[in-house]
Amino acid sequence: MYWILERKDKFYKIAWSYVYNHEDIEDILQNTMIKAYEKVNTLKNIRFFETWFISILINECRQILRNREKELLQKDIEIYDYHIDEYNFFQEIYSIDEIFREAVVLKYIVGYSQEEISKILDIPIGTVKSRIYRGLKELRILLEEVQT
Amino acid sequence: MNCNWIKEKLLDYIDGILNEDEEILVKEHLGQCEECNREYKELKSTIDYVLNNTNRIDTTREINLNHNKTKVKKIRRFTRTGLIAIVLSLFLVVTSYGTEIFDFMKFWKKSSEITETAWEKLIESGVGDRLDVSVINNDVKVTAEGIIADELNTVILLRIEDLKGNIRYTPFYGSGEDEINPITIDGDIGIHPIFKEHIANSIRLYTEEENTLRLMLVAEPMTKDNGNIKISITRLIDMLNKDKEARVIKEGNWDIEISARKIKSKQFIIDEVIDLEGNELRIKKITLAPTETNVEYEFETYNSEKKYFLNLVSFVIEYEGKTYRMSTIGIPYNSYHNGYGTAKGSISLETLYLEDPIEIELIVEEYRYANKILTSKGDKRYNIDFNNLPQVIDYNNSQITIEDIIYYEDSVEIIIKEDDSIDRKYTETDMHITYDDGEVITSIYAANIESELRDDKGNVVDLDAILNNEKTYNYIIRKKIRINTSKEEDFYIPKEMIEKGVFYIQGQRYTEFPNKKITIKLE
Fold first, then answer.
1. How far is Cα B127 from Cα B351, in angstroms, rounded to an integer?
2. How far apart are CA B313 and CA B334, in angstroms?
3. Which residues in chain B are closer than 8 Å to A22, comparing Cβ atoms?
4. Contact present, B92 and B99 (Cβ < 8 Å)
5. I want to staple B230 with a disulfide (CB 3.0 to 4.6 A). Which of A134, B186, B246, B298 is the partner?
6. With helix as H, strand as E and coil as C, how does B355-389 read?
7. Complex-level ipTM beyond the 0.85 threshold
């Protein structure tokens, strides 16, 4: 538990980039924790616990998004005045294609290295790089559109 | 120096993780190459933007984690289908106003005539094929009269004749255990993207002959440019018998096989924006096909100025003085959105295939929004004393009345009246009652039972207003929540639990008529 709370900010930001609203993030963290407890004996090298935990977390996020699509019932978000900035930022980030967005979020919002991202997403480092690059490009285009 | 090599290194350069030699090479190149330098600056500023905004994410909110909690409560929702997609099918409109048969006939004749005229015009111009393939079984003759297949729809016109009597027969689905799919389509036809099977929607068209009904079948596009289609009907019912008990049901096998060709459409990528009081409607693509004019669009659902969520945008096309409204061949479809982020949708309008325009005008006639996303989270909770009705509750400056609770043998109905003040702005309140037995959360949503069509001055108008394409608001007057209490139903709430239900209001819906216009070039 302590281990999770220590890294709560990181995990929160990852889940935020997928689902935005607090209640879903809470559900995702809860479910990730349960699954991690259940599956911890399948983990071969404890050194990779964090990247392994995050790959479960990301799967949970994707699951929630898929359910949303299925039900066409997106979870509610209450937006108060002081949250508008946060919501706008979410929309900007969320406008990036999912596979590129993941890489950008892990790199710049959460602060993982390219090697760590390569482990989390289970893709080669070259792909990590090109995804970050493409993601930033997409965001750039959007920001330009917004400014003009 | 190779610019591609530099671009590959830019991310690492910004991170400061290149080795010394590489770093010098990149730095030198950026001093000389304008293009790479611009690329670098753009990347750097985008990264800075992300890094500077990361602190906007509020991670300080408390998270309750409990590692002993391994079981999540199951959630059941009994949602009205209307929430999922608004298919403005003629029959949905008619039943929702509960009109008398006379009004219905008038409405039906007029809309059928519009559809048949549009169909004939296409067939006479050589778009699509006239057919005459028929089958007789159990004294009913089914004829395929024509087909128009394009890249958006496959539409087949059928004629169903009662050879011995004077009945207008239509395919009969039935309900409950008796429910079947009475009309199936097969062959070189695409699979429905959601249902993952062949789906044949049908629209009933009026004919003067009392023993005949025309049926327009609408299916997915064909999978080949030339192919075969099989249609099979297995059960029919007389559609206009007012007495439900006395309706005649016919079973049989009406199988028809036809060949068809797929007609190419014209597609135009568009980049036009219309401002809707803070929401930008972006027109992305227009497809001119024989069966419909399809317009793809996008908008951000949240309006940060006015703090509401846009659900639905309806527009029409004007060309050479004529207005092209919701599609008449096929299913008139428009996407409904309930969520945040970017809504990507499309609308099916009347065909402009024969007109082949190079410039059209697009007019946003109507949009609908809700004060919040209409899902269960964040709903406002009310405790109702069911032994002391009526009870008035306040929501968003409106008074909503829980009027009555009626106990039937196998169900309970709760009647709710919407705000009845004359200057009420919203059109409908979404509400539900929820039961939590510790393991399962069951929500039952209210359905509309009484509504009123009003014009923009608040006067009550009749169905003619829709036929004349006037601006009408559909104000909901009363709603009903019906709860099964019989153990024989799949989902039921025991009678003694009924009063333990918690009443929730999800939000309210609004309609606006902006009348915004833009010109779009198709080239």
1. 12
2. 8
3. 61
4. no
5. B186
6. CCCCEEEEEEEEEEEECCCCCCCCCEEECCCCCCC
7. no
CA distances from A4 to A54, A112, B65, B73 (A): 11, 16, 10, 24
Structure tokens at B56: 């906007």
Domain B3-263 of CATH type 2.60.40.1630: yes
Which of B10, B54, B79, B298 has the highest number of chain A CBs within 10 A, making it the mutation to test binding with A?
B54
Which is higher by pLDDT, B375 or B240? B240
Q: Where in chain B is the domain with CATH 2.60.40.1640?
A: 266-370
Contact state of A74 with B84 under an 8 Å Cβ cutoff: no
> Strand B226-238 to strand B169-171: parallel, antiparallel, or no bridges (unpaired)?
antiparallel
pTM attached to this predicted model: 0.62
CATH class in words for B266-370: mainly beta
Q: Is B510 exposed, middle or buried (0-12, 13-18, 19+ CB in 10 A)?
A: middle
Mutate to test the interface with A, among B50, B86, B309, B445 (most CBs of A within 10 A): B50
- Say yes or no for a CB contact (<8 Å) between A34 and B67: yes
Compute CA distances B50 → A90, B54, B59, B421, whole Å. 11, 6, 16, 49
Q: Which of A91-95, B230-234, B367-371 has the lowest average pLDDT?
A: A91-95
For chain B, positions 326-385, list CB contacts with chain A under 8 A: 338-342, 372-373, 375-379
The Cα–Cα gap between B473 and B461 comes to 10
Q: How does DSSP assign B219-274, residue by residue? A: EPPBSSSEEEEEEEEEEEEETT-S-GGG--EEEEEEEEEEEEEEEP-EEEEEEEEE
Which pLDDT tens digit goes with each residue over B23-50?
888 988 988 888 888 889 889 988 988 8
> Is B468's Cβ below 8 Å from some Cβ in A?
no
Residue among A16, A26, A95 whose CB faces B342 most closely: A95
The letter for the amino acid at B261 is R
Q: How far apart are CA B418 and CA B428, in angstroms?
A: 8
End-to-end CA distance of chain A: give it in Å, rounded: 47
Residue A47 Cα, gap to closest chain B Cα (Å): 22
pLDDT digits (tens, 9 = 90+) for A100-123: 999 999 999 888 889 989 988 889
Q: Confirm or reject contact between B117 and chain A (CB < 8 A).
A: no
Residue-wise pLDDT tens digits, B384-431: 998 888 999 999 889 999 999 999 888 899 999 999 887 888 999 989
Q: What is the pLDDT of residue B381?
A: 86
**What residues contact B328, with CB distance under 8 A and at least 6 apart?**
B111, B114, B115, B118, B350
Q: Which of residues 40-99 of B touch A (CB under 8 A)?
A: 42-43, 46-47, 49-51, 53-54, 56-59, 61, 63-67, 69-70, 72, 77, 79, 83-85
Instruction: Render B481-498 in DSSP notation, one character per residue.
Output: EEEE--TTSSS---GGGG
Alpha carbons within 13 A on the beta-carbon side of A96: 27
Q: What is the CA radius of gyration of chain A?
A: 16
Pair of tokens at residue B496: 């003694």
Residue spans in chain B of domains classed CATH 2.60.40.1630: 3-263
Q: Spell out the residues 6+ positions from residue B68 whose beta carbon is closer than 8 angstroms to its own.
A: none
Mutation target among B46, B58, B62, B344 for the A interface, most CBs of A within 10 A:
B46
Q: What are the backbone angles phi and psi of residue B242, rounded to the nearest 5°? A: -70, -30
